[in-house]
Design a protein that fits this description.
Layout lengths: L8 H18 L32 H4 L17 E2 L18 E2 L1 H8 L5 H4 L4
Antiparallel strand pairs: 1-2
Length: 123
């Protein structure tokens, strides 16, 4: 009678395969996960079209107005000036008042990505 070997080479190969591939089989993606999700209407915007397609001065787009802020108002002292040279402000008055904004909007402008001319100076 033959003495029983601990593991034959075939059994060793199968065991190694199961140990190495077991964790990867558990992370299999669910059915249909490779499909792209359609996010709403994908038609391009036309000139002067907004999303939502209402004027920014309407109540639905901007909410209730709190009132005008004068230079003597204490809320005016909370406003900050954005001196980012990468952002071109219109400045029709010539006094730099277009650069004055709330701190929240200033953080939003700081988080904007730099223009492509920073990455591609040859354009």
């Amino acid at each position: 009678m033959r003495s029983p070997a601990l593991l034959t080479p075939l059994q060793t190969a199968v065991l190694a395969f199961l140990i190495l591939t077991g964790p990867s089989l558990q992370c299999a993606s669910p059915r249909g996960s490779g499909r792209r999700l359609r996010m709403g209407n994908r038609t391009p915007l036309v000139y002067k079209q907004h999303v939502p397609n209402v004027s920014e001065n309407t109540l639905g787009a901007s909410g209730l107005a709190e009132g005008r802020i004068n230079k003597e108002d204490p809320k005016f002292k909370k406003l900050v000036t954005n001196d980012n040279p990468d952002i071109i402000f219109r400045d029709e008055e010539g006094d730099g008042s277009d650069r004055i904004m709330t701190q929240v909007y200033n953080f939003t402008f700081v988080d904007l990505p730099p223009p492509p001319s920073k990455y591609f100076p040859f354009f």
